[in-house]
Amino acid sequence: MILSRTTQYAIQALIYMATQPPGVAVLNRTIAEHLNSPPTYLAKILQELCRGNLLYSFRGKQGGFCLREKSDKINLMQIVRLTEGPEFTEGCVLGLKVCSDKTACPMHTKWWPIKQEIVKLLQNQTLEMLAEMVASGKYQLTDFPGAVLGDLKLPT
Q: What PANTHER family does the entry give (predicted)?
C-alpha cells in the first residue's frame, strides 16, 4: 500500500499505547506480542519515535515506552513524517529526482491533489480517535481476535 510496514507498526504500537493509562510505561515485548510483530524490529521503530519526541523510554525494571503527549495531540502525519521521511510528501510518485509543477513527471498533475488529500487525512486523524475506535471493538489492531489482545480500554 502507500505506507511502509515500519510506519504501520509504528502507528499500531502508538495506538496500543494510547489505550493504556497515561504515563504508564509499556514494554516493547508486550507491544510486540499484542501486535504480533517482531520485537527487535519494533524496538528500533520505538527508539526512532523516541528520537522524534513522540515517546519517552525508560530503562530498568519499570522500564518501557509511553507517549510524551496526550493521544489527542499526536496525529498520523507526525508519525508518517518520522518513519517515511520527507519524501512521503515531497517526493515524486514515480521516484524521479526532479518533479515539480515546472518539471512534472507524467503522473504529477493527477497525483498532486491525491497526495494533498492523503496528507490532510493523516493530519486529521489523532491517536485518540483511533484508540477510541479500537477500544470500542469496532476495529482491531491485528488479525487476531479481540480476546487475544485482551481488554483494551481507554484510560479515563
A: HTH-TYPE TRANSCRIPTIONAL REGULATOR YWGB-RELATED, WINGED HELIX-TURN-HELIX TRANSCRIPTIONAL REGULATOR, RRF2 FAMILY
Contact between residue 26 and residue 65 where contact means Cβ atoms under 8 Å apart = yes
Contacts of 45 (CB under 8 A, 6+ apart): 6, 9, 10, 13, 83
Quickly list DSSP for 61-123: TT-EEEESS-GGG-BHHHHHHHHH-THHHHS-TT--S--SSTT--TTHHHHHHHHHHHHHHHH
Task: Give the pairing of strands 55-58 and 64-67.
Answer: antiparallel
Q: What residues contact residue 97 under an 8 Å CB cut-off, 6+ apart?
A: none
Amino acid at 77: M
Task: Kindly report the backbone phi and psi dihedral angles of residue 64, in degrees, each rounded to the nearest multiple of 5, phi listed first.
Answer: 140, -160
CA dihedral 98, 99, 100, 101 (to 10 degrees): 130
Domains of the chain: 5-141 (1.10.10.10)
Q: Model-level pTM? A: 0.84
